[in-house]
Amino acid sequence: MAVLVDNDTRLCVSGITGREGTFHSLNNRTYGTQVVSGVTPGKGGQDVEGIPVFNTFHDAVEQTGANTAMIFVPPRFAADSILEAEDAGIELIITITEGIPAHDELKVYNHLKRNPNVRLVGPNCPGILSPGKANVGIIPASFFSEGNVGVVSRSGTLTYQIGNELAQSGFGNSSIVGIGGDPVPGSSFIDIVELFEADDETELIVLSGEIGGDAEEQAAEFIAENVSKPVVAYIAGFTAPPGKTMGHAGAIVSGSKGTAQAKAEALEAKGVRVGRTPTEVAEIAVEILRG
Amino acid sequence: MDLLEYQGKKLFAQHGVPVPVGKPATSVEEAVASAEELGYPVVVKAQVLIGGRGKAGGIKLATNHDEAAQHAEAILGMDIKGHVVHELYIEKASEIEEEYYAAFVFDRSAKKPMAMFSKMGGMDVEAVAETDPEAMRTLHVDPLVGFQDFQGRRLAYEAGIPADVIRPVGAMLAKLYETFVSEDAMLVEVNPLLVTKSRDVVALDAKVTLDGNALYRHPDSAEFRNIGAEDEQERMAKERNLTYVKLDGNVGILGNGAGLVMSTLDVVAQAGGQPANFLDAGGGSKAEAITSAVEVILSDPKVTAVLFNIFGGITRCDEVAKGLIEAFRQIEPTVPFVVRLDGTNDKEGRALLAEADLPNVHTEATMLGAAKRVVELAGQPTAAAQA
What we know:
The complex is a heterodimer of chains A (about 290) and B (about 375). By secondary structure, chain A is α/β, with parallel strands linked by helices.
């Protein structure tokens, strides 16, 4: 098993005809993901290296049985594309786009929440990789192999850093889920940790957080009550000054709220071990896995 | 993007939130001319992005020409908690009878806008929340339905304000919510929200933060400037589409991906160093972007060494190496560089660097090793450089 994406994933890519969209769709297909269709309004009837393109998500779902969407369109079109995918009956919507206005995200989040059959991952995320099964997004799959560590992270490159250190110690991953660096992520740490807890293949969970918001604090509470598997955490941004957005729209210490210190303390108070560096996170994980 | 008071009030006025009349000024002459035009008494207000302006002497009442000139002279150039005053706002004075507090915040935890209202305005809201949490009334707004009249009434009644201002306060809250949503704000705060002697309800201050990602919808707001807060490196980086944040130390940092760069700053600090900046070269950076980023980092005179920490995903390490080599050709840096390249095309990147044999460029295999090395090479910031 793995979580969210696997051999049953039938992917439809919104923005497949754009330069980045084409590049990563083909990469995902090369990895083994079933990329069944794409959507670009006005380009219905065309194809991208054999992947049929439709004008609407509704056509793509009806004709290709897509169950997963990847959103690759520019920020100003992204909210609309997510809502279209949901309206067409897509169950999992993975949004790579960075720079979506926060109020758009707020509306999308609150609308999607009313539909129990849909899940949004992202925006502003690198996607999801289940090694050996499927890759949806921009995660460089070559660094990761099949294994039993589930990773959930707000940051892409930091995930690669931690994953690579684990790989060097001989440990692979069940799934790697980027939840994204925006203020209103569609899926929270809790949503993904819950999936890993239920996933047979996952033995240990790595949670990589950063400054801003209180998703890590909420996850700490959830883990204490609901998670039996070991969780190792990392928090980035101890040196971030308050009031400055550190690259990710969601990575900002507001006044005294959302500091790395507070997050690390909240996790440790609930028995989650927190590594001080990405290297230390990998070391702790390896120590636990080797028992 | 944080707005100055007068910029926030401009947005308020556009959405029908009552504000006193006023005019911004950048010189004493301009301030006095505005005061004369508005008619005395006026208030001369420092325009800086920091609370406690009044206590610091940055807000003064002027009842005639000489006082206006005197206060403008004193306040322009004043340093308020590290913020130098470059602009003033000259505002018609209001007769204060009661001071309330109102805000709409982007509640990331609840994933909804949150309305806040208190009759204990004029003071530090966090202090009120601590001493008398009941005094701050809050409720969440469903963003798909918007702020409802009953919510305004409920906040007003619960806060216990006099009957005659329940309706106008509710109306102002509705207009503030409209400002919050239609301007794509992350925060709209009014403290104090004033009841005047004639029982008018007015926003006497404005604290507005806009969402940088939504500025394409608001070309006028994108033009708002805050001269005092502009940093030379941050301005350069913005022009080059780089994500850069200036910090206080002397170790220049370049990485790819916001999380990895934040982590790099932390690791450098743990190794005893002080980062000079946050710079995310972004995913898939080409050589030109790297060269351009090196220019920005080195334009900060405090920088005594630079760390490149790259884990290539879509970013290719050979492109990063090419960018660095080009930067050395163009800029001829005099400070040492420590470079850690891992991930996509790392071998090619390291080979390019070895071949180029750049002066004072050190390669390291790991992130921790690289952080330690750069801290040794950078030394501690000198007192002169810190000042």
